[in-house]
Amino acid sequence: MVKELEAAGYSKPEKVDKAMEKSVDQRLKDILDINTNTFNRARDVIGQTVSDAIEASLTPQELTKELKKNLFDMYQLRVNNASTIARTESAVISNGARHTLMDSAGVEYREWLSAHDDKVRDEHAEEDGHIVGMNEVFPVTHLRFPGDPEGKPELVINCRCVELLAKGPEGEE
Q: Mean pLDDT over all residues of the chain?
């Protein structure tokens, strides 16, 4: 990204490392929330399983079997989603850092670029090519940048789009 900025005539931001660190730190805080949510979900599964076992008069052995099954099911869902989570987090971190660098370099305009294949969401295909100011959201998705963690999950999860430097709104130079 720094080379792109310099090639486009922007100076290397003085605080590149700080900008990157800020972006990554924010995602790490968000990821810690995932762990808290997982813990809370496990607590809820255990509580519901114990309540159901008491109501059904299960033996301790039967309760153990039910707890094992229900916790396995809950965690297996997490394991099955590991690739999606990894891909999404990579995009969120890299696009967030890219956005932060562009902003700290004084970039005024940026353009949405989709992956241009049959897996691209309709909203992202429609967003493709839109040019907006650095402090504006993109008009279709209302995201600050592709993979914006503040956006709706259905617009962020598995997003492979990126934002590019742009000269200005269409028709302007």
A: 84
d(C-alpha 101, C-alpha 79), whole Å: 33
Q: Which residue has the tokens 């989570």?
A: 85
Distance separating alpha carbons of residues 127 and 119, to the nearest angstrom? 14
Q: What is the DSSP string of 105-169?
A: TT--EEEEE---STTS-HHHHHHTT-EEETTSPPTTT--SSTT-TTS-HHHHTT---EEEEESSS
Residue 145 predicted with pLDDT over 70: yes
32/83 Cα distance (integer angstroms)? 18
Distance CA 172, CA 29 (A): 39
Residues 116, 118: Cα–Cα separation, whole Å: 7
Give the residue, 103 or 172, on which the prediction is more confident. Answer: 103
pLDDT at 140: 97
**165 φ/ψ angles, rounded to the nearest 5 degrees:** -65, 145
Distance CA(8)–CA(98), nearest Å, equals 15
Question: Phi, psi (5° rounding) for residue 131?
Answer: -115, 130
Structure pTM?
0.68
Give residue limits of the domains in the chain: 17-80, 107-166
- Per DSSP, helices labelled H in 56-111 are 60-80, 82-104
Question: Average pLDDT in the 28-43 region?
Answer: 73
